[in-house]
């Protein structure tokens, strides 16, 4: 990954508040309310955009579930799927085995 050095300067204000320069915020598609993971790496402060995931939806983002989603999407793209015109058609297909 290549990073661009930007000559933007900001100031740490009261209560440790800092403004991300508009050019960077727009380039990164950031908006009010976005959350970040803040880390220190080799003497630099690193802000990484973070997604807030409700606890009852966290299962969907586990590596196991994401692998299953990727497998299903690959099957769909390869044409290994059936489209049913109605619920009745789908339910009838279940009895065909």
From TrEMBL:
SUPFAM superfamilies attached to this UniProt entry: AbrB/MazE/MraZ-like
MF (Gene Ontology): DNA binding
Domain SpoVT-AbrB: 10-55
Record-linked Gene3D superfamilies: 2.10.260.10
Keyword flag DNA-binding: yes
Pfam (any one): MazE_antitoxin
Transmembrane segments annotated in the record for this chain: none
Keywords: DNA-binding
Protein name: AbrB/MazE/SpoVT family DNA-binding domain-containing protein
Lineage: Bacteria, Bacillati, Actinomycetota, Actinomycetes, Catenulisporales
